[in-house]
Amino acid sequence: MYLQINNLHKHFETKNGTLVVLKDINMTIKEGEFICAVGASGSGKSTLLRQIAGLDMPTSGEVRIDGEVVTGPGPDRGMVFQHYTLYPWMSVQENTEFGLKLQGVPKKIRREQASYYLNVVGLTNFANSLPKELSGGMKQRVAIARALVSEPKVLLMDEPFGALDIHTKESMHEFMLDLWQRTNITIFMITHDVEEAVFLANRIYALGSRPGTVRKEIKVKLPDRTHTVKRHSIFHDYRDELMELLRRHGQEALAAA
């Protein structure tokens, strides 16, 4: 599996004229990679993710998965949002099954698949609980299980840990790395959190702002992926390089405004 973004351009017409949000975006994501796109506000991160998800169409250029042009949403892409978007009246099991139910999957099969992925995310014992009975991190695990249950080719994540407190976020980072290593699923995540990107990704695309463009691609090679690596000089080097890159291009964008 590979995800290819070719010369993608996106603009919107506003009362003040044409607003260019994304310009000349080119990315290649191979099977089993964990990729982060990092950028400040105005870099078009969420717009980019919507193009990949098929929720919106590029003005020009294209997104391809396994050579097929993306023309709309599909089960080959699972989506996880910052806010959990769980149905409060449904149990954890029912929330996890919901996408399969919409696809017309028989009850027995969808129950088995949902149960399997609830076990993968460590929530088997909470299958009958309602979302209000869960912590923030647990709710996000349900959202991840729901995205995985259709067995997509790529998992798309829209700042999924932005609403969590720092301790829960760190726990979810370790959970995501474990999940990625166990399932070998391809992950494309957007974030404004530089340290998060360095800790999770094996490659990072740094996006400039106004319009969003790929400023640099960084391959991340850490000695390990445990929380102690954040004290390592190589982690600091990656973090500082990214922060300086985003700061510099942010200043350029403001100067050009």
TrEMBL record:
Give the matching SMART domains.
AAA
Which SUPFAM superfamilies does the entry mention? Answer: P-loop containing nucleoside triphosphate hydrolases (SSF52540)
List localization entries: Cell inner membrane
Q: Where is the ABC transporter domain?
A: 3-234
Its domain of life reads Bacteria
Its GO CC terms are:
plasma membrane
**Lipid bilayer topology:** Peripheral membrane protein
Q: Name one GO molecular function term.
A: ATP binding
Could you say which protein family the record assigns here?
Answer: Belongs to the ABC transporter superfamily. Nitrate/nitrite/cyanate uptake transporter (NitT) (TC 3.A.1.16) family.
Q: What is this protein called?
A: ABC transporter ATP-binding protein
